[in-house]
């Protein structure tokens, strides 16, 4: 009898990986914390979907901690041997859950690694090695039968930003790690991107993020679908797709077009990248604001590029692209010139910031009224990128916002500059508006207008609103320059001139060339 039971037990262990797991643990970060702490979080949705499909024997346990990365979770594992640590979710303790073991263990990390300045394309091999150590630590600490590695979601909503391209590579490494460890790969990122793209083809303002990093309800719907697939009950997944998933998400096969602005190193030229479903690609064309001309169209319906010559003069503009019966619009804001890679000096608290350590030749030229695009810093002429403010990287409809981390990785205490020329038909009074566009960071912003420093302070999202300073634009061209110093994590600020009531000043035109 003992031999028979032993044989049966051995046979159970050899069942294919698709076998149903009764107890599921998710090792994650704040997104996994949100899965329980937000009413629409994916844990709530997964549990509801299981219940609606008549499945009552599954425990789905999220272990989510704010700021947790692949490396920091190794410390959580070590502490879990003798400390009953709680992360983001009340009533869930790591030691207790690890001691119980699981049938399926899912690792859902990577977002904070991408946010952190220590991860870039050159350090990805080291990051992969650290991820392998995390897997080894979990194998030594937790009893489980099946391991699943999930890729991170999106960081900002344009797939072509620096951070999202970095995360694409991280997802490839996670897939490789799954293969090397006999684990399964869960295409969380790919599912998120697929639905995001499909919904953007219907509505260019469709949003999947709460704050550039954390998914909103639609994002958690995508995560729910992924985790239901991981659990492996096809009837539950099918039920969710048919009955529970919002109708607005059932658009994967509908005709449509998505568009995204691309920054440029060439003043007077920029590109729009897009994809088309349905429609007539051969008839692809663009209706452009005054002063712009469509130079060429390249690519395929799945990935095309419009190269556009000229410079927009209004603060807010709209591009309309058509492909036969399919039409889509794109908000086009007046650009900035930006330059990054400068040392802002070490500081953490506002009182610790030292302006003299952050100033470069660019600041001296700004105060002298010189052309800062020709400034020489440490023996080299400064390099400038034409940056187009986009809601996809600032999380809101702000034509004066710059997210430096969308174009570069950003070292701790790095600073960057932005430049924009503003033409006023007459001398005009207004207010300079300066604010943070982050939730996890702070910036020290110094602003020069026509050779005079008009603002210098630390801005944070916690202030809840922008700082304002009365300013006056002279008749003709005005030069707006700002230095934005960061500590770490996010690196985005808004710098613009408006009416005192917050409305846009009429009659102004904008340029990066003053031509």
What can you see in these coordinates?
There is one protein chain. The protein has 515 residues and is an alpha+beta fold. It has helices at residues 2-13, 30-37, 42-52, 70-79, 94-100, 111-115, 124-141, 162-180, 188-202, 217-231, 234-244, 355-358, 361-368, 391-394; strands at residues 23-28, 59-64, 104-108, 146-150, 184-186, 256-262, 269-277, 285-287, 292-300, 303-310, 316-323, 326-333, 336-343, 376-377, 380-381, 385-387, 401-403, 414-424, 428-436, 442-449, 452-460, 467-473, 476-486, 492-498, 509-511. The strands form six sheets. Strands 13, 16, 18, 20, 21, 23 and 25 form a seven-stranded antiparallel beta sheet that branches. The protein has a five-stranded parallel beta sheet with strand order 2-1-3-4-5, with helices on both faces. Strands 6-7-10-9 form a four-stranded antiparallel beta sheet. Strand 9 (292-300) and strand 10 form a beta hairpin. Helix 4 runs parallel beside helix 7. It starts with a helix and ends with a strand. Mean pLDDT is 92; it is low at 1-20.
Short descriptors:
globular, 515 residues, disordered N terminus, 14 helices, Rossmann fold, Immunoglobulin-like, Jelly Rolls, 3 domains, alpha+beta, 7-stranded antiparallel β-sheet, 5-stranded parallel β-sheet
Range of helix content: 25-40%
Low-confidence stretches: 1-20
Average predicted confidence as pLDDT: 92
Shape: globular
- Provide the CATH architecture of the largest domain: 3-Layer(aba) Sandwich
Task: Tell me the number of strands.
Answer: 25
CATH homologous superfamily grouping of the largest domain: SGNH hydrolase
CATH top level class name of the largest domain: Alpha Beta
Query: End-to-end span in angstroms?
Result: 91 Å
Largest sheet: 7 strands, antiparallel
The CATH topology of the largest domain = Rossmann fold
Number of domains: 3
Report the β-strand fraction as a percent range: 25-35%
The whole-angstrom Rg is 26 Å
Structural class: alpha+beta
The total count of helices amounts to: 14
């Amino acid at each position: 009898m003992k031999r028979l039971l032993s044989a049966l037990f051995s046979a159970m262990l050899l069942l294919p990986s698709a076998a149903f797991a009764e107890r599921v643990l998710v090792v994650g970060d704040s997104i996994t914390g949100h899965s329980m702490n937000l009413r629409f979080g994916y844990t709530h949705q997964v549990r509801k979907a299981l219940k609606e499909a008549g499945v009552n024997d599954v425990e789905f346990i999220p272990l989510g901690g704010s700021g947790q990365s692949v490396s920091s979770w190794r410390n959580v594992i070590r502490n879990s041997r003798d400390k009953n640590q709680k992360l983001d979710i009340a009533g869930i303790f790591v030691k207790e859950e690890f001691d119980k073991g699981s049938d399926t263990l899912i690792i859902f990390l990577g977002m904070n690694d991408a946010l952190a300045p220590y991860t870039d394309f050159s350090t990805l091999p080291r990051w992969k090695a650290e991820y392998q150590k995390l897997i080894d630590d979990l194998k030594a600490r937790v009893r489980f039968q099946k391991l699943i590695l999930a890729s991170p979601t999106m960081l900002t909503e344009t797939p072509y930003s620096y951070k999202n391209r970095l995360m694409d590579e991280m997802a490839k490494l996670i897939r490789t790690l799954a293969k090397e460890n006999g684990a399964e790969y869960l295409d969380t990122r790919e599912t998120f991107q697929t639905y995001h793209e499909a919904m953007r083809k219907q509505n260019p303002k469709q949003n999947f993020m709460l704050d550039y990093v954390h998914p909103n309800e639609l994002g958690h719907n995508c995560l729910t679908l992924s985790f239901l697939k991981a659990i492996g009950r096809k009837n539950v997944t099918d039920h969710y797709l048919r009955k529970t998933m919002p109708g607005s998400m059932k658009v994967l096969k509908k005709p449509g077009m998505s568009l995204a602005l691309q920054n440029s190193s060439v003043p007077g030229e920029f590109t729009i990248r897009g994809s088309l479903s349905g429609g007539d690609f051969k008839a692809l064309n663009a209706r452009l604001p005054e002063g712009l001309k469509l130079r060429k169209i390249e690519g395929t319906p799945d990935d095309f590029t419009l190269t556009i010559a000229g410079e927009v003069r209004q603060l807010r503009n709209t591009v309309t692209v058509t492909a036969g019966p399919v039409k889509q619009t794109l908000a086009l804001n007046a650009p900035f010139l930006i330059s990054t890679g400068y040392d802002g000096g070490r500081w953490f608290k506002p009182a610790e910031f030292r302006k003299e350590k952050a100033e470069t030749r660019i600041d001296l030229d700004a105060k002298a009224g010189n052309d800062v695009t020709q400034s020489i810093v440490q023996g080299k002429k400064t390099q400038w990128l034409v940056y187009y403010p986009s809601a996809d990287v600032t999380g809101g409809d702000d034509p004066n916002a710059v997210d430096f981390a969308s174009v570069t990785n950003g070292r701790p205490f790095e600073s960057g500059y932005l430049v924009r020329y503003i033409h006023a038909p007459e001398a005009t009074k207004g207010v300079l508006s300066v604010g943070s566009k982050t939730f996890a960071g702070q910036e020290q912003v110094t602003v020069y207008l026509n050779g005079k420093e008009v603002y210098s302070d630390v801005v944070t999202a916690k202030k809840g609103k922008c700082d304002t300073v009365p300013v006056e634009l002279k008749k003709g061209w005005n030069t707006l320059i700002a230095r934005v110093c960061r500590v770490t994590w996010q690196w985005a600020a808004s710098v613009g001139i408006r009416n005192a009531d917050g409305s846009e000043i009429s009659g102004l035109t904008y340029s990066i060339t003053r031509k």
